[in-house]
TrEMBL record:
<dbReference type="InterPro" id="IPR019554">
    <property type="entry name" value="Soluble_ligand-bd"/>
</dbReference>
<feature type="domain" description="Polysaccharide export protein N-terminal">
    <location>
        <begin position="25"/>
        <end position="98"/>
    </location>
</feature>
<feature type="domain" description="Soluble ligand binding">
    <location>
        <begin position="104"/>
        <end position="154"/>
    </location>
</feature>
<protein>
    <submittedName>
        <fullName>Polysaccharide export protein</fullName>
    </submittedName>
</protein>
<dbReference type="Pfam" id="PF10531">
    <property type="entry name" value="SLBB"/>
</dbReference>
<dbReference type="InterPro" id="IPR049712">
    <property type="entry name" value="Poly_export"/>
</dbReference>
<dbReference type="InterPro" id="IPR003715">
    <property type="entry name" value="Poly_export_N"/>
</dbReference>
<dbReference type="Pfam" id="PF02563">
    <property type="entry name" value="Poly_export"/>
</dbReference>
<keyword id="KW-0732">Signal</keyword>
Length: 177
């Protein structure tokens, strides 16, 4: 009976999808909640920080809403420059850099579950430390991460040394013994 109950507890476990770790080596893609710094050379009125809204668009002066979700900073530079060339500026020189990443979320067996700011280089272990560390009942070997990969939400079990991406949700499970 004990063995059956142990197997039942493990039945929900699925190996981490390959795409889960492949996305770590790809350029960062913007999403809702990100804030970017757009610099248009010699155009102080256009140089500012802009947020990607819930719909995934960046509202930019003169040209209006520009799709940003899923685009890299370099793609956004080209997109903004192309829009500005259409009757506004002759040869715009545009630079886009990430000003603030969308937050991560830490839940489960941690001291203070909640939403936290993402910083480049953040690992699961560092995120748990920011969230007040493990509770005495926490499984400290591995955690579940839910991540949006190319529009698909995937969950995978990883070790605490794995890196995080903006928008990830970390779930620290309770240990069995």
């Amino acid at each position: 009976m004990f063995a059956v109950s142990m197997l039942a507890g493990c039945s929900s476990y699925r190996p981490t999808p390959a795409a889960f770790h492949e996305v770590l080596d790809q350029p960062y893609r913007l999403g809702a909640g990100d804030r970017v710094r757009v610099t248009v050379f010699e155009q102080d009125g256009l140089t500012n920080t802009y947020s990607v809204d819930q719909s995934g668009y960046l509202s930019f002066p003169l040209v209006g809403a520009i799709p940003a979700r899923g685009h890299t900073a370099q793609q956004m530079e080209k997109e903004i420059a192309d829009k500005l060339r259409q009757g506004y500026l002759r040869d715009p020189d545009v630079s886009v850099e990430i000003d603030r990443y969308r937050p991560i979320f830490v839940m489960g067996e941690v001291g203070a579950a909640g939403q936290y700011s993402y910083v480049p280089g953040l690992t699961v272990q560092k995120a748990i430390a920011i969230a007040g560390g493990f509770t005495p009942r926490a499984n400290q070997e591995s955690v579940d991460i839910t991540r949006d990969i190319n529009g698909k939400v995937m969950t995978g079990r990883v070790v605490t040394s794995d890196p995080l991406l903006p928008g990830d949700t970390v779930y620290v499970r309770e240990r069995l013994f």
